[in-house]
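Researcher: Predict the fold of Mitochondrial resolvase Ydc2 catalytic domain-containing protein.
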Amino acid sequence: MNPFLSKLNIYCGNLKAKTLKDLSIITGSPIGITKSERTKDILNQCLDLEQLRQRKLQQGYIIINSIDTGISNFSFTKFKWNINDKLPILLSWEKIQLQQKFLTNLPNNHHKKFDKLSSNMSPKEFSLLTHNLVNYLLLLSSSQSSQRSYTIPDVFTIERQRTRTISSKFVLDPIINCNILENLLFSSLENRLRNLKDVDSIKPYLVLSSNPQRMTSFWCPNMKTMNNNNNNNNNNNNNNNNNNNNNNTEDHEPLSEKKEKRVKLNDNKLSKTFKINLVKDILRTRCLSQQHSNDQFIELDSHWGDHLNHVITKNPTKFKLYDCLINDDEEMNNLGQNGTKKDDDLADSFLHGLSWIEWLRSYEGIYKLLNEGKEGEDRDSNSGYINETLLNDFIEYCHERKLFVDKIQERVINLP
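Model: Structure tokens for Mitochondrial resolvase Ydc2 catalytic domain-containing protein follow.
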């Protein structure tokens, strides 16, 4: 364990369970049941965040490519965060019908129609599709050479796929295909680095799994909070009422299995809607606000800024994320033909990328805080001594960042 993580481990050992939970949320860590589990998960997550911090420090920037896999609904969002900038800049935001884009050159596919998702893709098709997709993501095609020097990612985050739908006890073919694609893509990206022939042609990058539950819990309130807000929508004391309602809810008898499944299904649908609305709000705030504010999460270059301004100003409240894409006409036509004009996968890839940006921001704040104590503190901490002032500052920082998350969730609840 490196010296900083050793120090972090010591300070985590002196935090209460509630503060450890806050620290888990702001760094994107799993929330374990016991304090020791939470500390272990936080340190494991911080191993990845430390690599991102070092890469950003060494290069002066970091590029994160966040991926939501799917055969017909593959989407990815690429952000670049410069070391001296508060906000990341949006580089790419794409949605691809993978079969149309990467399998149409197979001899057997000259006359194959992709009117709907194929449920019987062969191993050869999966292999070729993944190979071409990896080349595309690494900007290795000749048409992408002009972008290669400044937009090749430092980290790929790939959303973990579920094993079945909440409403069904069966594993559906599209879910099987998504799981196959997720694992093939992850291994192909990692194996590309292991191939010595490719070392000189691409810079090293990280490949990380991104947990959809942790991403969703960072941006969206839970079901109880959303229901309580709906019940008290016109009450000026929403916060107090929500706390009371949450306490009362915990006294209710457990839900039946059937009702619990229905609640989970509704929760899933609600979170999709809220995430879509949140991304719309982030884009709308960025495009329509005259000044920078704490409500903004991204920067836009002139290319994206002009395009999104055009889309959003036409209909600020009802525009679709799909309409925000800058795909070429052929790809947009392929997406439309295959019924993929939906927004939830675009919102997921967008928010996965921003999640890692915000988790890294939290980690950088913690790193700076714990390394800027009084003279001699490093020696004392390594020997097991806790600086009480620094510990209190650490606790306060965790609570402040958690309040930031709470404000995001409150913003989501209050969206029209």
